[in-house]
């Protein structure tokens, strides 16, 4: 009986058409540490589309690699209308009991026993996606399981629901560690998009992607669509605009990106030095220190001619391409 349950409950962590995981190393390291220390588990909190489910599945995969039996369930609005509905696919006792049970306390206790019995000795890694949608009886079961210390709980919660009583109690009373699923940083958006599109993308585009996607992998996947032909064909030439027109532009990040992509400088038509939109005088002052540095990386460097350049000297010897801006 126990063996049969294990077969049903142990899932294959096939990530299907998911893309390679980007970032989240610190979060996974923390989860591994908690698992090894027999912690109760984690609550992964983030905005819709921030990557909570994906991170939770990676945490479960990690727990499995450390010896746990991996089980996952997804709470939805539909399961929230049924007592213990989310556990129905896992626990025969729910099928047998729900129809007749008037006393949910007894049913919750039987579910706890059945789950723990089935996984005695192995440790259970239990993922509950969208834990904020659990019904009351399931919430009670989760709280009991957290206290048992025999189950490592990996839960996800939408940040809108992070203040509800049950969710607060997960970290306050059940001692699950709260882990924020933050938007992906620009560097990860760059890594993610250039890996998917098959080559470097310029920093201006990275910034545009960051702003349009708000750092959410869900949206990023919609923008980076190699299946629709956005993949960079082999042998194609490219340009590296700077993105300095944005008020969120950061010089150090742009420079780090340019340095990182220097091995591809040969196929790059030009890399534009930072400029000031609509202001030639300010552009000359801003660009000039960068022109030799960009060249030294192996790029052909572009100087942006901005409004008013016609009345000012052009530093012709210091750049390779004149970029008509303004
Ligand atoms: N770190 C990541 N690396 C690669 N792909 C990711 C990453 N995070 C999320 N994704 C992908 O982005 C998409 C959306 O992520 P996910 O479903 O985990 O977001 P979510 O926060 O759970 O969304 P929802 O609020 O709708 O439940 C999925 O296809 C997922 O595989
Ligand atoms: Mg999700």
What's a concise summary of this model?
The protein has helices at 2-9, 25-36, 52-65, 92-97, 104-118, 136-148, 165-172, 186-197, 203-213, 217-223, 251-260, 280-287, 290-296, and strands at residues 41-46, 69-74, 124-129, 151-158, 177-180, 238-240, 268-272, 301-305, 321-324.
Radius of gyration: 26 Å
- Spans of at least 5 consecutive residues whose pLDDT stays below 50 are 1-16
CATH architecture heading of the largest domain: 3-Layer(aba) Sandwich
N-end to C-end Cα span: 74 Å
Structure write-up:
With 326 residues, this protein is an alpha/beta fold. The chain has two domains: 2-180, Rossmann fold (3-Layer(aba) Sandwich); 186-324, no CATH class. Helix content is 40%, strand content 14%. The chain has helices at residues 2-9, 25-36, 52-65, 92-97, 104-118, 136-148, 165-172, 186-197, 203-213, 217-223, 251-260, 280-287, 290-296, and strands spanning 41-46, 69-74, 124-129, 151-158, 177-180, 238-240, 268-272, 301-305, 321-324. The strands form two sheets. The protein has a five-stranded parallel sheet with strand order 2-3-4-1-5, sandwiched between helices. Helix 2 crosses helix 3 (52-65), helix 8 packs across helix 9 (203-213) and helix 9 (203-213) crosses helix 10 (217-223). The longest helix is centred in the middle third of the chain and has 15 residues, at 104-118. It is elongated. Mean pLDDT is 85; it is low at 1-16. It binds adenosine-5'-triphosphate and magnesium ion. Residues 52-53, 129, 156 line the site of magnesium ion.
């Amino acid at each position: 009986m126990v063996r049969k349950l294990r077969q049903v409950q142990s899932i294959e962590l096939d990530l299907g058409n998911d893309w390679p995981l980007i970032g989240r190393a610190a979060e996974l390291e923390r989860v591994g540490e908690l698992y090894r220390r027999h912690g109760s588990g984690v609550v992964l909190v983030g905005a819709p589309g921030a990557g909570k489910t994906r991170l939770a599945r990676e945490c479960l995969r990690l727990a499995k690699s450390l010896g746990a039996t991996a089980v996952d369930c997804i709470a939805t609005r539909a399961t929230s209308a049924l007592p213990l509905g989310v556990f129905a696919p896992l626990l025969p006792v729910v099928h047998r009991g729900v129809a007749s049970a008037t006393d949910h306390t007894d049913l919750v206790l039987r579910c706890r026993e059945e789950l723990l019995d089935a996984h005695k000795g192995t440790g259970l890694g239990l993922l509950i996606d969208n834990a904020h949608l659990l019904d009351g009886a399931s919430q009670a079961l989760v709280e009991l399981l957290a206290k048992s210390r025999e189950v490592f709980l990996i839960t996800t919660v939408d940040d809108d629901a992070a203040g509800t009583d049950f969710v607060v109690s997960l970290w306050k009373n059940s001692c699950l560690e709260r882990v924020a699923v933050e938007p992906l940083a620009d560097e990860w958006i760059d890594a993610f998009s250039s890996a998917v599109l098959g080559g470097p993308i310029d920093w201006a585009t990275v910034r545009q992607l960051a702003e349009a996607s708000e750092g959410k992998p869900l949206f990023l996947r919609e923008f980076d669509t190699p299946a629709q032909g956005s993949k960079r064909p082999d042998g194609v030439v490219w340009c590296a605009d700077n993105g300095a027109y944005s008020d969120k532009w950061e010089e150090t990040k742009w420079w780090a990106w340019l340095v990182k992509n220097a091995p591809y400088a040969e196929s790059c038509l030009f890399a534009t030095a930072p400029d000031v939109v609509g202001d030639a005088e300010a552009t000359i002052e801003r660009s000039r220190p960068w022109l030799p540095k960009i060249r030294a990386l192996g790029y052909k460097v572009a100087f942006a001619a901005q409004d008013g350049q016609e009345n000012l000297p052009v530093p012709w010897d210091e750049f390779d391409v004149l970029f008509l801006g303004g």
